[in-house]
Design a protein that fits this description.
- The protein is of the alpha/beta class and 630 residues long.
- Helix content is 42%, strand content 16%.
- The strands form four sheets. It has a seven-stranded antiparallel beta sheet with strand order 9-10-11-15-14-13-12. Strands 2-1-5-4 form a four-stranded mixed beta sheet.
- The chain starts with a helix and ends in a 5-residue tail after the last helix.
């Protein structure tokens, strides 16, 4: 590996330096043989680079400038990744010192803000002082302060102007509006993206290629605050990735299409045209899953477009946009015939047949996205490795997955991204709980994360419960467990998302022929009179493949499975304090429609949406009741 890097780096440096010196030699007095010699070296270096480019897997119809641009971008980010990985390794050897430095850097930068003066940041000397002086906070602590920032007031919480006001996904409650800063974005790229690219290339050497990636992401709708600050999601978008769009199969004009449905069709269309796709990528596995659902529904239309070299008239495109896209198309009946044969063979394992050189699905498939990853691996993407690279949120980068090939998604906390505190699971309801630091936590224990970040959140409860599963040197490695706001709790039993999903998967395995597509729950209290009088209970909505009805015995099996997994739930059931679950089978496509409703209501971007596993709005529960099949 070291030799390969040397073989590329040396000619690249020689080529660049030779050209530079040759130019200088042209303008200044220099012995005539030197520019010529360096010119020869430059040509030799470029020849070696081209040899390396030629040896890599790449798609057809690529221009020289496109290939060279991708090559240089990948090599540049790869070098950054190795450098950042070495820094991370060094940081894990002394997390206490690094965490102290990270905290004091945040405080010193913002000590002259209104907020910094209120809490006297300038006099805080260490983390103990900080924790003694500053309270643990939730979003309500910042709401009015952020309204002031949105109105144009400067130096309220942070010293710099925010890049945008970032809306959270609203998974465990109403969407919150947080500040997004240059520092947060830079940290995410350097400490997250580059490090994970390095881990990916080490684990999957085939990913170090010049194949294009199909990336499912969309242009979100931003609005402006009264002071003109953009308000929208805090995630990668086509606009923020504009210098990298040549790496993707989707052409740049398609990213300007505002409709998610039409943009998804175009993602699929141009991906299908290219049989050499190397990676499927999205923020979350759910986005990839629903892309394949759309592919299964519209494949005939897509094949016809490829055959004719046109874009379907069903897409609501402006004439100019349609012309720009169709200029990139040409009739390809041969590829269309190949695709039709693949689709007619069925959709199990379809991804590898459509793209024989596909080597990776790059998307987060932990937490609420776990079931989508499992369905993709079992069905559409059989035999293709998955890599879940980050543990991140609107608040910023939290951890990176350095073990791409492991089935359990584990994330090494990034000690320079956030100052982290840990609230033991047993202390979640205490009014003034004592927190632990990275060096204090214990393997095998669950904690709520409390973070101080680069964008104006101090000792902030993000609501994530994680389990410390191991240490890398001195740094904790965690697995995501659940969101506090996504717990079922009608009598104080507190059933987490992970616990309920485990019971549901056990039950589905005993429902002959059934395959879980999606699910969510509602506590009976939000439904009121619509379900009649009864003891408090869980209303469970499931979408399945392979069955059209569930017997009462099958429905009750889910209740039994949860009792087996939760002694507390079982005790309430035995006492009669909690009634039996009511399991509703909904018609196919229901959760895709629910997803659209949730995105529209919360103004969340498809790029950041996560399905709500516990519904807190009666309107959503009523929608599902109206789609009940049995």
């Amino acid at each position: 590996m070291a030799f390969l890097r040397f073989r590329v780096a040396v000619p690249l440096c020689v080529a660049v330096l030779s050209v530079a010196v040759a130019i200088l030699g042209y303008n200044q007095a220099m012995p005539p043989p030197l520019p010529a010699a360096l010119g020869v070296c430059s040509l030799a270096g470029m020849a070696l680079i081209w040899r390396d480019i030629s040896s890599k897997m790449k798609g057809g119809s690529r221009t020289l400038s496109s290939l060279l641009g991708q090559y240089l971008a990948v090599k540049g980010v790869g070098w950054l990744g190795r450098w950042q990985r070495r820094k991370l390794e060094a940081d894990t050897l002394n997390v206490k010192r690094v965490q102290e430095e990270t905290l004091l850097k945040r405080l010193q930068k913002n000590e002259h803000t209104c907020y910094g003066r209120q809490y006297d940041f300038s006099s805080i000397r260490d983390s103990d002082d900080f924790r003694a002086r500053h309270p643990i906070t939730t979003y309500e602590h910042y709401r009015e302060l952020i309204i002031r920032v949105a109105a144009g007031e400067e130096k309220v919480i942070i010293a710099e102007k925010p890049l945008s006001l970032a809306m959270t996904s609203g998974t465990s409650g109403a969407s919150a509006m947080l500040l997004s800063t240059k520092d947060t974005n830079t940290e995410f790229f350097l400490q997250g993206v580059t490090v994970c690219l390095d881990a990916m290339q080490q684990a999957f050497p085939a990913s170090d290629s010049l194949q294009r990636t199909t990336k499912f992401f969309y242009t979100p709708t931003f609005r402006q605050s009264e002071a003109g600050v953009p308000i929208g999601p805090n995630s990668s978008t086509p606009a923020s990735s504009r210098y990298m769009l040549n790496l993707y199969t989707t052409p740049a004009p398609a990213f300007e299409v505002p409709s998610e449905k039409d943009a998804l069709y175009l993602h699929l269309l141009f991906a299908l045209k290219d049989p050499s796709v190397g990676t499927l990528e999205s923020n979350f596995a759910s986005t990839v899953f629903y892309a394949f659902v759309a592919l299964q529904e519209r494949w005939q239309e897509l094949v016809e477009d490829i055959k004719r070299g046109k874009v379907s008239s069903a897409l609501a495109l402006e004439p100019e946009m349609r012309a720009r896209l169709e200029a990139l198309m040409k009739p390809d009946p041969e590829r269309a015939a190949q695709l039709q044969d693949h689709f007619q063979d069925g959709f199990r394992g379809i991804a590898k047949r459509l793209w024989p050189h596909l080597h990776l699905v790059l998307a987060v498939d932990s937490g609420s996205n776990q079931i989508y990853g499992e369905m993709l691996r079992e069905n559409y993407c059989q035999g293709i490795p998955f890599y879940s690279p980050f543990y991140a949120a609107t608040e910023g980068l939290i951890g990176v997955n350095l073990w791409p090939q492991e089935a359990n998604r584990r994330y090494l906390l990034c000690p320079r991204s956030m100052f982290c505190e840990f609230l033991p699971e047993s202390s979640l309801e205490e009014e003034a709980p004592h927190t632990l630091l990275m060096e204090d936590v214990k393997e095998g224990h669950n904690y709520e994360l409390i973070i101080t970040n680069a964008s104006g959140l101090f000792r902030y409860r993000i609501g994530d419960i994680v389990k410390v599963v191991e240490f890398h040197n001195q740094c904790p490695i965690v697995e995501f467990q659940y969101r506090r706001g996504q717990m079922l709790n009608v009598r104080g039993e507190k059933v987490s998302e992970a616990l309920f999903l485990g019971a549901l998967k056990k039950a589905v395995a005993q429902w002959s022929g059934a395959q879980l597509v999606d699910y969510c729950c509602a506590e009976s209290g939000i439904l009121g009179d619509s379900i009649g009088a009864s003891d408090p209970h869980y209303q469970v909505f499931v979408e399945l493949k392979g069955v059209r009805n569930l017997t009462e015995k099958q429905r009750y099996k889910l209740d039994i499975c949860l009792q087996q997994d939760s002694a507390v739930y079982k005790s309430f059931r035995i006492k009669g304090s909690i009634g039996p679950m009511r399991v509703q089978l909904v018609v196919g496509g229901t959760f895709n429609e629910l997803r659209k409703q949730m995105i529209a209501f919360s103004n969340t971007s498809p790029n950041t949406f996560k399905m709500h596993r516990v519904l807190r709005r009666k309107e959503y529960a009523n929608f599902l009741l109206g789609r009940t099949a049995s």
